[in-house]
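Dear Dr. H.,

I hope your travels went smoothly. While you were away I took the liberty of generating a structure for the chain from your last submission, since the lab meeting agenda had it listed for discussion. I wanted you to have the full record in hand beforehand rather than looking at slides cold. The sequence, exactly as received, is reproduced here:
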Amino acid sequence: MDVLKRIALALVIIGAINWGLIGFFQFDLVASLFGGQAAPFSRIVYALVGLSGLFSIGMLFSPMEDDVRGPMDNRNVQYGTEFGEETTIVKHPDHPDYRE
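The corresponding predicted structure, in token form, is as follows:
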């Protein structure tokens, strides 16, 4: 499924770049590469970009993975140092649990 998400993301990026070129420069990159907007391969690319956009709507509402770890992140990390001071909790004499 991860491969499908990456392919969909790549096609959405291609579509976004193409729409940006159309909006800013009136230049359709897909049409110019594949023989015009009516060319069969251009229509296939447009259709795949559209399907990728629809698939990405589902990814937008899916929960994100908060804990993404690499192969080296399974170790136990200790942030303290041997030079740190230990804190001692001392209760105030007026506290009901105070014992000397």
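Two observations you may find useful: The chain has a mean pLDDT of 82. Residues 2-61 form one domain.

With kind regards,
E. W.
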